[in-house]
Amino acid sequence: MNDFLSTYGFLIVSMLFGSMLGISLYLPLMAGQLSLASPGFYAVGGYIAAILSTKVFVTTGAFPIPLLLLEMAIAGIVCGILGIMVGVPALRLRGIYLAIATIAFIEILRILSLNLEITGGAVGIFGIPQPFSSPIEYLWIALPLLLLSMAFVYRLENIRVGRALVAIREDELAADAMGINPTYYKVLAFTLGAILAGIVGAVSAHFLNTWNARQGTFDASIVYLTFVLIGGSRSFLGAVLGGMVFTAMPELLRFAADIPNLPLFIAQFLRDGRLMIFGLLIVLGTIFFPQGLVPAGLFKRSTQREQKSTK
Amino acid sequence: MTVFLQNLLGGLSIGSVYAIFALGYTLVFSILGIINFAHGAIFTLGAYFTYALMGGKFGFNGLLANFSLGIQLPFWLAAILAAILAGGVAVAIERLAYRPLRRKQSDPLLMVVSSLGVALVVVNLIQYLVGAENYTFPGNTYGDLPSAINFGSTENPIAIRTVQIIIFGISGLILAGLTYFITATKYGKAMRAVAEDPTTASLLGIDTERFIMLSFFVSGFLGSIAGTLVGSSFGIAGPYFGIGFGLKGLAVIVLGGLGSIPGSVIGGLLIGMVESFVPDSGYKDAVAFAILFVILLVRPQGILGQKLIQKV
Description:
The complex is a heterodimer.
Chain A: H1 2-30, H2 38-56, H3 65-91, H4 97-115, H5 139-158, H6 160-170, H7 172-177, H8 182-208, H9 218-231, H10 236-257, H11 264-272, H12 274-288, H13 303-309
Helix pairs in contact in A: 1-5, 1-8, 1-9, 1-10, 2-3, 2-4, 2-8, 3-4, 3-8, 5-6, 6-8, 9-10, 9-12, 10-11
Chain B: H1 2-32, H2 39-53, H3 75-103, H4 108-130, E1 134-135, E2 148-150, E3 159-161, H5 162-184, H6 186-196, H7 198-203, H8 208-234, E4 236-237, H9 241-256, H10 261-277, H11 287-298
């Protein structure tokens, strides 16, 4: 067991991070808004933690947990404010504008982090102090955080706000006519996702020990999108499971590539073709499983009726 | 004065490439109402096609290491063939990835998502086949020309890079040709009719599917030409170089107004100019995106777009 944990500890914690990033993308999707900004907020959160822990809270020995929690809170607040700033101009409008604005956002962030001195330029920030002695111990932070965010989203789906989001997804104009303010709810969902991504980024910076501009790229956005879309865009469980499975997938593919007697070109494809496989999964998934593999309303009684009524 | 003129022409030349590239987005957007994110990948593909058709050799990585086609076509022929090939790829993408979604009348958002998937596949396929190296076109790609032409007098030289003049010329020709095609020919008119209202157009006897295919072909053609022009003058910076360009194209179409053809041209030229007057620094690439945010704030319909009032 100990052997297993020390070998796969890193992967297990990464899978939980993947789940939370999935949720952060799932939140705006609840209102039918395609956001590609999660990696951007994740990167911002990471930079905040990295800068604070290497330049402001300089400590010796293990990094104290309360300071880590403080960093997570700061990252969450900053990303929340950023989320509102990006969300309001884009979400006043209907249609594809959020996707475009979030792409512009991650590109600006990438360019800033490559050029600013405080973010360490292209090299990034090194030697971020560790609060724990081994990767698996990060579960103390990651697991409660995941459970908390799952409980939060589960609850959210069952209250007025969640119903408003679904109403906007199904028909924004009708929702507006019913007295739901679409901009308010869309910005709310987007900002909640931003906060979560920022918090995860803050933990992740410590976890990975180094942080650079490669953390928040256009590629990463599409990968996170796969988590949610293939996992299931109509249930947060889809995002959670998708995040876990697809974070582990490169590992699984590597494992599959080591099967003896496999033709060389297949083995090589399994090793190098990860992003191609992700892309193909997205294309096929949108055609054959437009709502992902985890169906809507897995926990609800009126499953049948609801599935019929959704497009 | 000299610097001003150089910046101006530099801006016009890169701006005109932005314009023809952004028109590819616009054609598809005006018909299907989606942003085709695979357009940036087509741009990359076009540059690689032209490189290969001109007899360029591929590097040491990837499945096609050290491969070359063994034919050496002149630049203009290679560029046109590459554009036709890329247009074919765009049509194939439409048939394989988007048409099934349209048949099922899925949410347009899914088509956008699917196009992201397609972009990921195409870019990584290129990397898988020919590796991630940079490739540069041979020095005399456009023929044996001087590297700069002096428009001033000998005492007061105004030297303009030949490449910029050529790019501007080619883009101008393409823009003129496309404008003629869309406004004056039967096919162009039919395409506009489909964009206006697919149902009515099909009731009037226009084969909607055929014109969707045609607009994807033209879109791929334009993307490829833009890729070839950028690749041949600045070099191909690995399989991802089209993605960054593709993202900038989004700023162009939002600035001009989503779905507006003259808007894309104006947006492209404007962003090209602004970029060329911004002093060189690491932040230069962020300018287009900053403009995008400002436009979203102050005039979301863009320069030439119309405010849409949605009715039930």
